[in-house]
Amino acid sequence: MALGTPPVNNGGVSAGFKSLDPAKYTSLGDFIDEVNAPDNRDLLVKTYGNQGITGFLKMTGAVKASGSNDEVQYWEESRLHSKATITPSSTASPAADIPSSAASCKIIVASGSTFLRNNDVVLLNGSIRAVIDGVGDSEGTGSAAATSEATAFALTGTFGEALATASSQDVPIIGNLFAQGSDQPSQFIESNVVKRTNPYMILKETFKVSGSQATNIGWINLGKGDYRWYVKGEMDTRQRFLDKREMMMLLGEKTAGSGLTINSTTVTGSEGYFAAIEDRGIVASTAADGDFGTLSDIDAIVKELDKQGAAPEYCIYANSATMLALDDMVAQGLATAVTGVTTGAQAFGAFSNSQQGAIELGFQSFRRGGYTFHTKSWKLLNDPTLLGSSDYNGVMIPLTTVVDPKSGNRAAALEMNYKAANGYSREMEHWMTGSILGVTNANTDSLQFNYRSECNLITRAANQHVLIKNNGL
User: Distances from the Cα of 155 to the Cαs of 91, 115, 417, 457, in angstroms?
Assistant: First the structure.
């Protein structure tokens, strides 16, 4: 057998070259640079810092709970006292006001005022005390089932000021009056309770790497000497999933009707934190430029919080513009007006009565109108790729627990719920499918990372929460 000479295969590069000019050596690197190891710095620079935005719900005291239905139902008590809607009516001259010298007047009782009864005393025009008689009786309940006419008698003999016949007013029921020897009221008022429900929502994500890519070694150290770039991709996918799950609990909305048909399947939404406040909480309006944080802004909110029976301690999570405005408010001579930056143990109940504990967590605090406000910048509202350009500037969260009117149990104002039963939890499911890296449950030359969560958020007593929003209501 004859052996041939192997062909020369040098990649088109000569084994060497001849030169008589020493100057040629100055460009020697042009020929042999590819054999030199690059001066590689393997540290991965965190150009935008820690980009994860999860943790807000945990920081605000939201608790975790499991659920075993397609939705969560919870209960909120109604107000102890209710106003009645009435319209003074002058039968003699409908267009004229009822004179201040009148001793009584006809009133139209709105159909929804089912708690107004005979002998009740109401406050007309904000100061006139009048006792009610002739409220329509519906099936023996003594309440007005439909719009009906009754009579208001001034306690002092005359009203003392004119009543506008064309305008309705919501009047508080301040008490009642009965004659000597009269019977007890034949009707009573039953307490009401508000039933609320919130469906679960399902979030999913996937990341995939081929067998070949899983064995490639790159230039960048991802930590602990690991240079496999797919590890970075999987970690980022997980963080994005966690971020989106938290944002959906903050920004989610219920879908109309039975849901939306997406890709031939029915998708149901869930009420998030912001939607709950917009529906039944306090929305603080900001100026056109988004400016918020003046003394008048805080005072307006304090007055509204008083109406809602709010807790004395709040956290303000806001974007940088709002945080700077709040800092200026305290710095520009408001230290006296707001009784200064908060000091003393009792003002830091949320931090185990430790001012130092609040400082270590990055909170600054001030007091106004009997309320303590702890402020902290919220990364989510500063990120230009997320809510940095949205209408949302911040939230004010009561640091308290609420009482369930049905069971009497105390619960956190915010509750994160996850589907779970018999040891199986859908809080954060993570599994892999493929035939590489030790996984052998599929025939594909790849590995797929799967993420799934079925969750929702309950916002109890949303009327005590504040949403700071551009062009708020």
Answer: 21, 21, 54, 50
